[in-house]
User: Fold this.
Amino acid sequence: MRFSGLRILKEGLTGNKGWRAHWRDPEPKAEYDAIIIGGGGHGLSTAYYLAKNHGMTNIAVLEKGYIGGGNVGRNTTIVRANYFLNGNSEFYSHSLKLWEGLEEDLNYNVMHSQRGLINLFHSDGQRDAFVRRGNAMVNQGDDAILLDREGVRKHLPYLDFDNVRFPIYGGLLHPRGGTARHDAVAWGFARGADMRGVDIIQNCEVTGIDIENGAVTGVQTSRGAIKTKKIGMTVAGRSGQVAAMAGMRLPIESHVLQAFVTEGLKPVIDHVISFGMGHFYISQSDKGGLVFGGDLDFYASYAQRGNLPMKEHVMEAGMTLMPMIGEAKVLRSWGGIMDMTPDGSPIIDKSHIDGLFLNCGWCYGGFKAVPGSGSVFSHLMATGTHHSEATGFRLDRFRTGVGIIDEEGTGSQHNLH
Assistant:
């Protein structure tokens, strides 16, 4: 079933009785050519590109809950390619290009809106750092425009430009940055994978990984044992726990990152805005709610909820940047479990166990990476070689210290990322 304007009009005139389920609800088979553990954005996109680009269709995606219930539905929906360091820069550029053709590719409206992203700076030193970052983005083939104070004011006149502690000096505009609808991205990839024969199995928790003679042979699940010779692990904040089933200890800590949304308001914020001194970021959804977030909760946790002190911290940052936000009523908050690596950059690599592949450590960058991650991870699983856009995401960089991609320059400490 393909979507089109004509189809939507027809269904609207006939009581919407002709729509079918987006994907099947199959029973697990006894054996698959490959199994993806985790039915979030990365797992679903990996299955989709395995089928589309590599012709692998005897695949199962195993999700312990429901599609869209994990981090892919628990984020602030920002899409961007404004990274600075080699390793990250080319990967996120690759991912953004996939975003730009994603709706046509999936035949699904993921509500990708390239409204532009503005990173504010508040000192001469920050301005110099963003000049360097902007030049790196342009050299990578992406877009970046340096705005002075008045340039920012033309776009964002409602900010507090004369805050005593954090006066706004200017900003770096990334016009192709923006947002997308998080759960629609999950649904679109699930539908696309299912159309190509992939089994999407919900409420199927993996409880063990079977290994014989150094190679995977299958998984144990809450719905029985399933055989396979290839496993892709895409479980975000649960990466350490699932890797432990295979006897591995990953360099990852899991932390909670909170997000918030207000009541629906008339359109006021046209861009995605990032506050350089408060780690505060905000945009306005198509329904009118202000969607915003801030720092991690700074303690290890597997709980999909946050703490009150961090809520207060985020609200304070928002009030510092734009006092008008104080008039909005917060409807709800939620937490996602971030799998944080020591250098703040992801891991896409083969493990020492034959047939076990790792995709984890996305820190803050998980949602914007969804199509790029699936593209490069499926290439690794299908061919056994690293995709050219993801050669820097190897696991052994934490053992050797060579190739560390410390984008924030905050050192190899989880709590600082």
